[in-house]
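Exercise 7. Given the components listed, write out the predicted structure of the assembled complex. Treat all entries as one system.
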Amino acid sequence: GDSVTQMEGPVTLSEEAFLTINCTYTATGYPSLFWYVQYPGEGLQLLLKATKADDKGSNKGFEATYRKETTSFHLEKGSVQVSDSAVYFCALFNMDSNYQLIWGAGTKLIIKP
Amino acid sequence: DAGVTQSPTHLIKTRGQHVTLRCSPISGHKSVSWYQQVLGQGPQFIFQYYEKEERGRGNFPDRFSARQFPNYSSELNVNALLLGDSALYLCASSREGQGLNYGYTFGSGTRLTVV
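Answer.
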């Protein structure tokens, strides 16, 4: 079945550092890919998305490119802030996946001032 | 516009009891999905409803049931609660039935604790 694999956390960075959180997927067909963020004590917020190969999703300085050849959707940000500290989830939606989002386990990001 | 609203925000129940969780989608959204998130893990899919019909079901026991009303709000019911049902229950709504192009908007969740 479909699956999503994320790099394990926590990832600890200093403010203004470059961020990469790796995400790879296994799926049949052409899934849509998403990054969600969960701040402490809150629900999930859609951060960015890409619906076809080579699409780049971007929002709030974060970006990720849908790479079908490497089945990846890595999240990047050029300069992180303390307020970016949260848990980041990579997810996919596939037409054949029983109408569900398939989630990675999440990567906790800690930014130190 | 109001986002996805869930009630209650927190709930404590005893093993064996029944619980009903409620969700109101964003106005104009006809699809509602339910997810269970255990602490430290990614969400697990429970149900999706679209236009009041069940469109998908995850790998959960029959103790879990749901329904969608004519105004597109939804209820998740869990019978015979177990300690392992303690989790954050998330409701998500989508502009169309599949979420393929727009993704899902999540509520803040209901934190259920079973003691």
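Discussion: The first strand of chain A starts at residue 3 and ends at 6. DSSP finds no helices and twelve strands in chain A.
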